[in-house]
Amino acid sequence: xxxxxxxxxxxxxxxxxxxxxAAVMAPLLAPLVAGAIKPLIKSAIKGAVIxxxxxxxxxxxxxxxxxDLVAEAKSELAEEQQVAEQAAEQITRVVTKGRVKAKVRVExx
Length: 109
What we know:
Number of strands: 0
Mean pLDDT: 81
């Protein structure tokens, strides 16, 4: 700091004078500083509330979209499983019919 670089370094009396001056002026300046800072703090709180509400809206929208995607994926999986089961049934029928025919042919021959 410039004050301490200009010769106040090591000077106890000057340091004490600055400390006492700050201690005396603090109660006088505190209401002025508090009055000036209060609107800034209220604005910051308002901004935080607005930001929080927007965050909640975004989170709700994300949740809705992700739930929709999960539901669509489950539906597609169920359709694919149903198609696979139908194909397996058809293959089983064909194979079973072929075995029955083969057995019948062997028995007739």
